[in-house]
UniProtKB/TrEMBL annotation:
This is Acetyltransferase component of pyruvate dehydrogenase complex. It catalyses: N(6)-[(R)-dihydrolipoyl]-L-lysyl-[protein] + acetyl-CoA = N(6)-[(R)-S(8)-acetyldihydrolipoyl]-L-lysyl-[protein] + CoA. Belongs to the 2-oxoacid dehydrogenase family. It comes from Fibrella rubiginis. InterPro entries: 2-oxoA_DH_lipoyl-BS (IPR003016), 2-oxoacid_DH_actylTfrase (IPR001078), Biotin_lipoyl (IPR000089), CAT-like_dom_sf (IPR023213), E2/Pdx1 (IPR045257), E3-bd_dom_sf (IPR036625), LAT1 (IPR006257), PSBD (IPR004167). PANTHER family: DIHYDROLIPOAMIDE ACETYL/SUCCINYL-TRANSFERASE-RELATED (PTHR23151), DIHYDROLIPOYLLYSINE-RESIDUE ACETYLTRANSFERASE COMPONENT 5 OF PYRUVATE DEHYDROGENASE COMPLEX, CHLOROPLASTIC (PTHR23151:SF75).
Length: 602
């Protein structure tokens, strides 16, 4: 079934996006995770990835054009599929859809074929009994926006409006917890809050429906039914009254079997009108046309383990199979379900075979039950926050996708320690050793642009600017605010920015502009007494520098020992972008700046 691709909200202040570049053209094959286009927002130029697989059937926006949030920009479906009715339904027009109910008068067979096409994309007024009074144009669906480049879902922390409240443009509808911060969800439409589809505390995938705003009294269910199921309040009895006679089908197809096909209420759950998680997908992550919905990482892990994805029940949006589904899949559960079916036909004739499966079934069930009473001590299961989910997902993808290698170097910090005391005497803010590290790394990156790069799949991007991501520990995990153009800033400016952003991070007040766009990252555990460690690369950066504590050691000048202060650093490199010699040369330059820090000030 064809799917509309809409302009996502890529930041909290974004109202429209400009298509900077299309990476696919009409007719190209699209896989989940492929980059469809580059979108320029008010904050940055970001990649728009595909979540559906199929063929790019339609591009509705040319390069350089601006599109409002939630505007249709493309259609993905099966090659040769008719998507025009889907576009007409999206724009509110059904003039081209209605004539499809007349041709079935020729013969019953074509009528069935036309009906299936309407079932794929049609949201006609004749399907719903209350349609004359319910115009989808009177109400607007509110979807979960993408508030950061790494956000895949958000949790509704609190609703600031309730159903029936008046809503004005700019009003805060709800607070949304993302993987980075808790942010306000503002309304862009005026009217009445007609429907809330997500309770407080529930997680919602990006672009999923969370509410409806429109005119008071509007039948918003028409809009919801068009997204995921039909409302058959009065059309359900119709197919039962005229299924048998051929003439009846020819003359009354709009209220007979065609209506049953257009509005398959009998095949959906009773709460499909209000349960937005129901979207017609199969239990095993397939859509209506049998396409398997699975994330690229889930497919890769399944291939490595030799698991058939068709046996896995997806728990992601619309039944999509995700990494956790593959890792938690138990192959023994599938074979146990199949022997139960042959046991029923065997039961009438021989009574003996039936008890044998019944006896074998409880036997394996006993071992997993025993550990529960035997377990000693108390424990607590802590639900994952959005931040922790994102840390787990992104760092796992980085470690298992990017080939890491590590380079460690010792740096003598005696001169840096002496200079720090002199600089702090004149600086308006206290300068830390980490600020020295940031400045030295920024200057070294300008001399080694190959390290200041990113892997983008089909190309390597070298940046002409230096944005240093600084890892900051918070209660729920780790945030990486960015010091922009660090090579052009003084030590005191860097120190002030890092201190300010660290405070925002701990108060969960960082905005997407504060953490997006790093070209290199630094993680410092020296203040915790850690001598040396290796860090996982923060994608899309090619490298991350792990900084340890400054420790006193002994160095020999000839045969005379003397005390020195040594700091160990380890550079984690993505071998797809940075080679060993490249990383080593960067570290030598970095070491030179710290061992002779006056070079950073002139």
């Amino acid at each position: 079934m064809a799917e509309l691709i809409r302009m996502p909200k890529m930041s909290d202040t974004m109202t429209e996006g400009v298509i900077a570049e299309w990476h696919k053209k009409v007719g190209d094959t699209v896989k989940s995770g492929d980059v469809l286009a580059e979108v320029e927002t008010d904050k940055a130029t970001m990649d728009l990835e595909a979540y559906d697989e199929g063929t790019l059937l339609y591009i509705g926006v040319e390069k350089g054009q601006a599109v409002p949030i939630d505007g249709v920009i493309a259609v993905i479906g099966q090659q040769g599929e008719d998507f025009q009715a889907l576009l007409n339904g999206n724009t509110g027009g059904s003039a081209e859809v209605k004539p499809t109910t007349a041709p079935p008068a020729n013969s019953p067979a074509p009528a069935a074929a036309d009906t299936k096409q309407v079932n794929t994309s049609m949201r006609d007024a004749e399907v719903i009994s209350a349609a004359p009074a319910a115009d989808a144009g009177n109400a607007t669906v509110i979807r979960m926006p993408k508030m950061s480049d790494t956000m895949t879902e958000g949790t509704i922390v609190a609703w600031h409006k309730k159903e029936g409240d008046a809503v004005k443009s700019g009003d805060v509808l709800a607070e949304v917890e993302t993987d980075k911060a808790t942010m306000d969800l503002e309304a862009y439409e005026e009217g009445t809050l007609l429907y809330i589809g997500v309770k407080e505390g529930e997680a919602v995938a990006v672009d999923a429906v969370i509410a409806v705003v429109g005119e008071k009294g509007a039948n918003f269910k028409v809009l919801l039914d068009g997204k995921g199921g039909g409302d058959a309040a009065s059309s359900a009895p119709a197919p039962a009254s005229a299924p048998a006679s051929g003439p009846a089908n020819e003359s009354g197809s709009a209220s007979g079997n065609d209506t049953a096909e257009q509005n398959p209420q009998a095949d959906v759950p009773a709460n499909a009108a209000t349960d937005l998680s129901y979207a017609g997908a199969s239990e095993n992550g397939h859509d209506a046309n049998g396409r398997l919905k699975a994330s690229p990482l889930a497919k890769a892990i399944a291939d490595q383990k030799g698991i058939d994805l068709k046996q896995i029940h997806g728990t992601g949006p619309e039944g999509r199979i995700v990494k956790a589904d593959v890792e938690s899949f138990n192959p023994q559960t599938a074979p146990q379900a199949k022997p139960a079916a042959p046991a029923q036909p065997a039961a009438p004739a021989p009574a003996a075979p039936a008890p044998q499966p019944a006896q074998s079934a409880p036997a394996p069930a006993i071992p997993p039950v025993q550990p529960t009473p035997v377990a000693a001590g108390d424990y607590e299961d802590i639900p994952l926050t959005q931040m922790r989910k994102t840390i787990a997902r992104r760092l796992s993808e980085s470690l298992f996708t990017a080939p890491h290698f590590y380079l460690t170097m010792e740096i003598t910090m005696d001169k840096a320690m002496a200079l720090r005391g002199q600089v702090n005497a004149a600086s308006p803010v206290k300068i830390s050793f980490n600020d020295f590290v940031i400045k030295a790394a920024a200057l070294a990156l300008k001399q080694h642009p190959n390290v200041n790069s990113s892997w983008l799949g089909d190309k390597i991007r070298k940046y002409n600017y230096v944005n240093i991501g600084v890892a900051v520990a918070v209660d729920e995990g780790l945030l990486v605010p960015v010091v922009r153009n660090a090579d052009h800033k003084t030590l005191s400016t860097i120190a002030g920015e890092v201190k300010e952003m660290a405070g925002k991070a701990k108060d969960k007040k960082l905005q997407p502009k504060d953490w997006e766009g790093s070209t290199f990252s630094i993680s410092n555990l020296g203040m915790f007494g850690i001598d040396q460690f290796t860090a996982i690369i923060n994608p899309p950066d090619a490298c991350i520098l792990a900084v340890g504590a400054i420790k006193q050691s002994v160095a020999f000048e000839g045969e005379i020992p003397k005390p020195v202060n040594i700091m160990k650093v380890t550079l984690s490199c993505d071998h797809r972008v940075v080679d060993g010699a490249t990383g080593a040369a960067f570290l030598q330059t970095f070491k030179g700046f710290l061992e002779d820090p006056m070079k950073m000030l002139v």
